Amino acid sequence: xxxxxxxxxxxxxxxxxxxxxxxxxxxxxxxxxxxxxxxxxxxxxxxxxxxxxxxxxxxxxxxxxxxxxxxxxxxxxxxxxxxxxxxxxxxxxxxxxxxxxxxxxxxxxxxxxxxxxxxxxxxxxxxxxxxxxxxxxxxxxxxxxxxxxxxxxxxxxxxxxxxxxxxxxxxxxxxxxxxxxxxxxxxxxxxxxxxxxxxxxxxxxxxxxxxxxxxxxxxxxxxxxxxxxxxxxxxxxxxxxxxxxxxxxxxxxxxxxxxxxxxxxxxxxxxxxxxxxxxxxxxxxxxxxxxxxxxxxxxxxxxxxxxxxxxxxxxxxxxxxx
Length: 322
Description:
The protein is of the alpha/beta class. The chain contains 11 helices and 16 strands.
């Protein structure tokens, strides 16, 4: 079968399309023929060995995908041909995977294979950030940075479905349209966002900030928080890791917390089932939607990652594996 492998940690030039054997020894695992796989910022970091977890080389890129069940243990309740999304921490950019049953999620009819290939990581990460880390309450307000990207659009969808008032931060008018289509109630441009947020909230500030961007806007994000507000760190797409002067936390009793979903799941694998129990009904009912991604052919995997690297991508990016 075909797979996208990283053979050297030298950036995008270290990627190769390879032929590798199909999975073996799958008696207790679910075998899924993948038709599409999600592309995300951590995949880009993997290419330079910059991600928190560095895999030995050669390694298969990707963590999420979607396809149909080829075989499954009877106890799973999964049937041959069933449409599913999967998490595969050993790499999803391959045509067939064998994964533990708790990493397989039946897709509701409302979610296509292409959309299902790239929503798990972002939607589960955002849910973890809001539920487990920010301890959100329905009716609170939330400011989402990078709101036209994969994590940002997921944050808008999940937050809206959970009853939060959303405010999106974007870098252009074109990206503002993407944010609006994904549930942003208010939209502000990144340049001068702090003052705009203060105006929108009557100088109160927002209850939660979700930040996958980092960089020099982080201090102003803290200034946007209301009393008892929480800033949740999801990543550093801007490249620079900000520092916090902790005296700022005292002024309004605010908090800064990290949301490392993948690391949490590795320590608490049962948490996935609890998350899916909360999110699946929202997907099935249409309250929470998964937009269609921008899809690249498997042979264009480098270009797919480049679109994230230079921030051309809006929404989610996925690979067509067949």
